[in-house]
Amino acid sequence: MGERKSDFFSMRTLRRVVQILSLAAFVYLFLLTVGQYDPAAKRIALLSRAPVDTYFRIDPLAGLTVMLSIRRIVPVMLFYALPIVILTVFAGRFLCGWICPLGVCLDIADKIFFRGSRRQRRGGGVGQNRLRSLKYYILIAVLTASLLGGQLVYLLDPITLITRAFTFALFPIAQLGLRWVGGQDLIEQRLASAAGSPLFPRDVQYFFRLNLVAAAVFIGVIALNSITRRYWCRNLCPLGALLAVFSKASVVRRQVGGKCNNCAKCVSDCKMGAIYNNPRDYQATECIYCYDCTRVCPVLATRIAPALRSEGYKSSLDLRRRHALQAFGIGAAFAVLARTNAAAKTSRTGGVKTSSEFLIRPPGAVPEDEFVNRCIRCSECMKVCPTGGLQPAITEAGIAGLWTPVLVPKLGECTQNCNLCSQVCSSQAIQPFEISEKPYIYIGRAVIDRSQCIAWNSDRKCLVCDEHCSYHAVYWKEVDGVKRPFVNEYRCVGCGICENACPIQPHSAIRVYSFGDRRSWTREQQKAFYELGAKSAEPGR
Amino acid sequence: MKPVSRREFLEAVAGLGAALFIGGCSKNGQAGPKGSVPRMPKVSVDGLFVASGRGPAKNTRAAIEAMGGMGKFVKKGDFVVIKPNIAWNRPPDAAATTNPEVVSELVRLCKSAGASKVLVLDHVIDRPAEVVLGFTGIKDAVEKAGGEVKAAQQESDYRTIEIPKGKLLKSDTLVRDILEADVFINVPIAKTHSATRLTLGLKNLMGCNWDRQSWHQSASLEQCIADYATAVRADLTVLDATRILLTNGPKGPGRTKDVDKVIVGTDPVAVDAYGAALFGLQPKEVSHILIAAQMGLGSLNPSVVKTV
Q: Of A274, A490, B26, B214, whose Cβ has the fewest other Cβ atoms within 10 Å?
């Protein structure tokens, strides 16, 4: 053992450092997904110029499924994901072992929660590879669905899965916790000099629907580690499956030298269970290049290096035709069911879905059919929304639209001088737009419920909706000697500030409905409609 | 790394929990007795002081000097809170928010009178509040003048106060800093208002409480405004009439008029009565001003109006 170098300077240590850095970068970019007042531009802007959606852009599965389903190239996703794909073709599934933030969490959880667990005593889950191909079938189902115009991937893509847990569950808890311990001020003092603005916005405490579900999925994925290490990555992850396919011909291979004494330590230590049967042989498509096997080998017989070899590994995927067809069928069934689901029905009056009158999409959102296919459910728009009004859809958009963003004005309005959601949307389901265009990006329409409104039904002096309206769409007229609110349809964009501020709670007397949604119109049409209204008599006083 | 035993883990969790709990107590535990004493002015000066034609900063300085200087109100080491109207995300020239130069000049005057800290705050309506503080020009102006800015956007920023003279409101909330301040200066802008016709000094105080919606829900918004003003008395009211908003108030955008005036007084009703005249209205025509006068908060016809 004299020739053994220090355990510290090894590829494994490097990999761990990169993993920690990757998780740190992921968390940092996540926290940077926040707006700040930009004194030069005199409006809200992202805190940093860093591309906060980097991890979604480099996710080849997200890019592939989006582009398959909308049948168009999304350049930003292509350009970021392509290098990853090319690297994977040559160097294998390093993304899983070195970069994937969920993978890092799984490895860390392993160290903390699953040390000496029953699993370890059973031998680290060796031989539990029956379900290994499941991830390929999941991938097949996902891609089939995308191709036929229904998105399934986002429930299982690891990058979006972990981000949803961060946005919906961890961040609001962190905010609350900081408030309890008074850490907010501390953080601000530190950051005042460093970044100039807080990462934890002061004036909004985020509350999210489905936060429990997002957390449960995340915890569930971690809990699967109790069966085998990286259970998720071995058996379920469709991104891992895609990368495995790409990595079939990788030239970086594990090699076992003649000194191997068949101690099989590498077999029991492989977190992916890629080394099985005998230590000299491994399943190359399962290897995530963690370099554990090179470190645990007592005789240093194992190394991982570029090599053009044809023996000592297996790279076939071992798919059964029957199962592949079943997966294909499931994906196709999902797509056609999603398309014939009640949520997909469009109203006769135009592009509005009949699934919910409260299906209010963020401004700049593409038309609904394309939106549910483009949106990768990464939750970045909801993280960045400065009022906390963007929420994951539960039933509004049907099964096919689960987790997509909807504006819930009761929780927060779409504030006037802001386009942050469009700036963080990697798939451009929310298209970039200028704030100056906002007066005619119609996302819904406010309707006054006169039976609830106290200005209408009890002659009160309440015009809170008119006061708050940023676009001068709510105005008042004197009717029977009392000022009562009205809505101008040309000016109302459906931002929901009126619904948010209405003192009638919880069912506001003015509510935003989806029939004002004009996404099916071009921007020119929207502008023309707006100008038509501007020509009409100046409403209110 | 040594594996963490269950016992150690639980101990760590319990310790962390206790730390969080204690930390939380120390922050929120200072609430003090429920129902603090109402905030009352210390100094009363007869009449109104109106400065015009010099631009916002100089008008402010001239009016305060005509009144006898800021030293009348602010003593050395005092903590001063200034409450402008910066509810909306509108640029300074839209006349929907208090002119930043008026506010920053007040900060300077307080500072030179010896104030240890001058805090400019409001319960901002448009979101995010940080953006509003920037967009209205307030943050920049105040910080350059040596003051601090704060948006009181969290319920923990507020304390409950008793309103003994209130008819509809018997208690309400008030920004904690105003309760703790030695001097409280109310700096409204003169605007029309859809619900209350005008918003001047009395109405501006509505931005010192946490829950506005309950006032709208109550039997009379105007009575609530007057009730609140009986308990939340500013030491000084400085009405910014540099540019006033004539239509589509309170948020605008609407027609504006350059009046170039700053009106200063200790009588909140008198200041508002003068402000109403700027819009060609009798003070009696604005219900909440009338109610406030009837409740004895001040005079609709100020005895002395000194124009400088």
A: B26
The reply to whether omega before B250 is within 30° of 0 (cis) is yes
Angle at A337 between CA A335 and CA A338, to 5 degrees: 65
Q: CA A297, CA A291: separation in Å to the nearest integer?
A: 11
Could you give the number of structural domains in chain B? Answer: 2
Check whether residue B8 and residue B137 sit in a common domain: no
Asked if residue B263 and residue B166 are part of one domain, the reply reads yes
Distance CA A260, CA A258 (A): 5
Q: List chain A residues with CB under 8 Å of B223.
A: none
Domain that holds residue B18: 1-31
- Chain B 221-250, CB below 8 Å of chain A: which residues? 221-222, 247-248, 250
Who's near B118: CB < 8 A, 6+ residues apart? B80, B81, B82, B107, B110, B111, B142, B146, B147, B148
- Using DSSP bridges, classify how beta strands A482-487 and A474-479 pair: parallel, antiparallel or unpaired: antiparallel
Based on the domain organization, do B164 and B297 belong to the same domain? yes
Do residues A404 and A375 touch, judged by C-beta distance below 8 A?
Answer: yes
Tokens 């963007």 locate to A390
CA distance A20 to A262: 32
The residues that bridge with A479 in the sheet, in sequence order, are A482
Contact B251 A467 (CB under 8 A): yes
pLDDT surpasses 80 at A497: yes
> Which of B125, B195, B251 lies closest to A462 in CB terms?
B195
CATH number at residue B242: 3.40.50.11440
Beta carbons within 8 Å of A436's beta carbon, 6+ residues apart: none
Type of residue numbered A45 = A
Query: What is the tens place of the pLDDT at every residue in B90-124?
Result: 999 999 999 999 999 999 999 999 999 999 999 99
Spacing of C-alpha A44 from chain mean position: 23
Residue B223 has pLDDT above 50, yes or no: yes
Q: Model confidence over A119-129: pLDDT tens digits?
A: 655 555 455 67
Alpha-carbon distances, residue B194 vs A85, B64, B228, B245, B250 (angstroms) = 60, 31, 20, 12, 7
